[in-house]
Amino acid sequence: xxxxxxxxxxxxxxxxxxxxxxxxxxxxxxxxxxxxxxxxxxxxxxxxxxxxxxxxxxxxxxxxxxxxxxxxxxxxxxxxxxxxxxxxxxxxxxxxxxxxxxxxxxxxxxxxxxxxxxxxxxxxxxxxxxxxxxxxxxxxxxxxxxxxxxxxxxxxxxxxxxxxxxxxxxxxxxxxxxxxxxxxxxxxxxxxxxxxxxxxxxxxxxxxxxxxxxxxxxxxxxxxxxxxxxxxxxxxxxxxxxxxxxxxxxxxxxxxxxxxxxxxxxxxxxxxxxxxxxxxxxxxxxxxxxxxxxxxxxxxxxxxxxxxxxxxxxxxxxxxxxxxxxxxxxxxxxxxxxxxxxxxxxxxxxxxxxxxxxxxxxxxxxxxxxxxxxxxxxxxxxxxxxxxxxxxxxxxxxxxxxxxxxxxxxxxxxxxxxxxxxxxxxxxxxxxxxxxxxxxxxxxxxxxxxxxxxxxxxxxxxxxxxxxxxxxxxxxxxxxxxxxxxxxxxxxxxxxxxxxxxxxxxxxxxxxxxxxxxxxxxxxxxxxxxxxxxxxxxxxxxx
Amino acid sequence: xxxxxxxxxxxxxxxxxxxxxxxxxxxxxxxxxxxxxxxxxxxxxxxxxxxxxxxxxxxxxxxxxxxxxxxxxxxxxxxxxxxxxxxxxxxxxxxxxxxxxxxxxxxxxxxxxxxxxxxxxxxxxxxxxxxxxxxxxxxxxxxxxxxxxxxxxxxxxxxxxxxxxxxxxxxxxxxxxxxxxxxxxxxxxxxxxxxxxxxxxxxxxxxxxxxxxxxxxxxxxxxxxxxxxxxxxxxxxxxxxxxxxxxxxxxxxxxxxxxxxxxxxxxxxxxxxxxxxxxxxxxxxxxxxxxxxxxxxxxxxxxxxxxxxxxxxxxxxxxxxxxxxxxxxxxxxxxxxxxxxxxxxxxxxxxxxxxxxxxxxxxxxxxxxxxxxxxxxxxxxxxxxxxxxxxxxxxxxxxxxxxxxxxxxxxxxxxxxxxxxxxxxxxxxxxxxxxxxxxxxxxxxxxxxxxxxxxxxxxxxxxxxxxxxxxxxxxxxxxxxxxxxxxxxxxxxxxxxxxxxxxxxxxxxxxxxxxxxxxxxxxxxxxxxxxxxxxxxxxxxxxxxxxxxxxxxxxxxxxxxxxxxxxxxxxxxxxxxxxxxxxxxxxxxxxxxxxxxxxxxxxxxxxxxxxxxxxxxxxxxxxxxxxxxxxxxxxxxxxxxxxxxxxxxxxxxxxxxxxxxxxxxxxxxxxxxxxxxxxxxxxxxxxxxxxxxxxxxxxxxxxxxxxxxxxxxxxxxxxxxxxxxxxxxxxxxxxxxxxxxxxxxxxxxxxxxxxxxxxxxxxxxxxxxxxxxxxxxxxxxxxx
Lengths: 543, 784
Fold this sequence. Notes:
The structure holds two protein chains of two kinds. Chain A is an alpha/beta fold. Chain A is built from 20 helices and 16 strands.
């Protein structure tokens, strides 16, 4: 049977679906509710394509081809209908892709994962997660105003998790901190100069070094640290903290030259010729000489591009207050990281991927009773106050207890969730079809392996079929009808009774974050391992 | 413990009766609910233990269908019809009145004493009596919100009475003086037909008048029921419309002489005494002679053409002999003796018959498809799942002409090579189920069903499957899923049921009305049928005419008749001196056609061009007091609640549309919302698999198209029809005579008691229940 898809013709056997024929031609069509071997599709309608003969949009996963069929899989009309389907699903979806703390962190630090690692006693791994995004956790652990804590859902129960102090805790142990720095790569021979050793400069230097570059920091003052050293009182940030963390940077090979006044002449004659790229982290432009450097301004009269941190001159980037005066050190630290990434992009001629924020849906605030759903897997009670006082911070026990208060409001499948991936791809706006009253969030945990969050379910029924195929006595089933249809264990039984041997397959089959493993961590290198036992799948290892 | 054992025994009996296969799940659940008034969890567990039905299956099916309850219900169930006709006549106000009367708090459905459970029902199919309320098996028409207490009292009295012995009478076959015909369709019964019948029997027993009383099916003249027809040999028939039980005696005595002198004397005396005792005895009747012209009855009946409803008001529903005497089953025997199956199909093709279920697919083509499948087993399904609010054609046909539909199905079975038929009938139509059941039994006994039908080589059996309350099951693939014992979720077509239907076998699904047209076509020839109607739509169409017309009822008209003819000639124009605004055709899948297009012909093409749809044939007439935004909201809330929940666009999209309409209806909408809802409406049409989702936006789109100014008005905070509660305000004008009736009846205490003074409505307390306006004797309550 001949069928033409996007002007490519293929001969397939009768009964082949449009989706399968397109697949054979190497044309990809998005799917969510479709899963090989399952029959309940189509329901989600993101696989819509256009049949040019009838002019109708059809779900490609279920329509068999017929002789001479003409199919178009990409057009603005098709894109729009797929996006609408996604937006309708999102309007009925309830959950934070990323935890609100992480979203409100200027450095996008994976706070909930740090919390879970601390709570589990995996302090070194926690520090590693912190330093993925924040170069100076010890320093910031003292001075960060912690916008993350203001966003923490836990505040609707009692008090937010002490994220900032937990972050400080991860970096407070000398041995742990040193070990963390041992993993840095050999220098690759390319040089980057960073001018200024404030929070932005230090951060940029750290990430450039982490990427393999040889980094030299030029500092005008006699001591490095910039605003950190000269604007913050000792009782808020003791000098030994600053020195400790800066010493750590020196220990991984970052050269810090102090007392270096860089004027236009030295910049042109020494810095520019001697380096592959330069990062300007000189602080408030009014107080430093970069205005005398020959840097062109753009049409708006700006020296720096706000997105790429590049100047009009090749190889020169900026970060921190030199671009715009920064009130929070964490913003400068975040910009230092981004400027380092941009510099790397420039030096590798775009071979690296730019950091971009992925689609996320959010619950703005919890309704009464919803926090209880999250509290099921959190330690109860108010914040832990460090017994040795604020300056000394948490002991290991205290840190574990405090981190255990985290509500795990971030999604357990932020990477594999098809709804998120496609919403990102189709630029879906999750707010477009939200109703006047949102559903109530629930999280069902009555199971040793699984978590079920019904409000993330797209009602594809794949899990229903899986539990039936694995001959679960109860399994999962559709309950109700229409807008109120949901999936649950029949006759009021618990998840534990419903899913015995098919847990692994249900999680794997679920296209969204509705069904996940209790301790699933995605997007990090830690993986759980499972083995099949007489009682079904059991976890045998962790991290 | 004992209870549990009893429950297990009852369940085991039910399972033994319905079988332990997966497909028995719906009948088993229906039987359990019949037994326990709800579905007790232990009973469901017992079913799972003893049958192939899994917990997953039983939960998914039981929670899908609206009929099933998981909480114990009160001893009596009050069903408030919220069909279209009832809606436009204020059924929600009636519902709210019951909520108050029973003292129900939010979320409660059963009163604190456990006596009554209140339910909404999509349509009871008694549209001409709107608003209708059914308490257990007793139906009340024209219910007013202020009468809820009286109604419940009346019910409690009646439900006790009905246990009393009925008067009986010996029928003397010699010297019959004539025949009395009394319609006993659901509407007639709701209007008091049974009381009239009882009074008739009592009178006959008391007077010894020897006439045969015949129950006939729905007469269609629902606006005039109970309708009594008296036939005397050699005289034209005389109709008595809207007859009351207490009038029966006088009517009878004016036509017939009591037998025997003593009886006559006694009758006279008693009669005379009656007159003395009851001074409100009737003086005039609504008496119309059958040969008299220019009566409302003639105006109603004349433009009509009875094919599906042939011999209406004449045939007794379950009398096979009579059906046979009126050419019944002659079409079938003609097929057996003179026609090959292919010739039958050719005849249907030539007739131009198109399916009466809504979409109008050519029936002959469908039959041919089924015939062309070479399999041993094929099925015929009669789709009587008439779920549209505002439609009662199927109910009336099933109640009145079960033999005709059986004949149609047999002919279809013969033509397509099928051996098994299924009547799919809504459980909300108990009378239809009973009549069909009885008719099937008679046919089995008479050799019309079973092996060698009417001594031919053709064998055919028919069973009944009762729908369990899901509108979407009117869609053929959902209907099949339901018969197979699944959730009524439609599936993608192709494959069409004609190729792969019930149990994977070729299945012919036609609407009830389609089957009832078939015998006539074969008897009178395809050309007789195709000479009626328009070029694309042949024959007649049955409509349920209701709403704001003077004469509602069940009508059968030739295709191509104009909307104006239906409303003005048959319906007698708009009731109460209001002005004609629009007709709603096709129920929740159809659309609103404005009065300005009333000269449009009614046929498949014209309707779909206008954005409406034939649907199954509900035709609700609207006047200037009907708000089109409210109506669009009404229909969408129905379809939204009936969505199966599979396709994203229908499941979530219709909900979002409804929310937008709610916003607009409450005066909170914006111009953006209008653009938004129209866009979404088109997406829902395009992104849904089945007819429900594809047509659900029609009422919204047609009202947006023809009544855009009304939407605009709502955005500006006005409801021109004074209907939308959030935008209206009740007040009392200076015509008030201070009678205090409104104050006494106001359920929220919004009107202070001021005898002989002009009353006032406190807008903060007013709940807009409309009772004051209805009880006011001088029209002093105004709504703006």
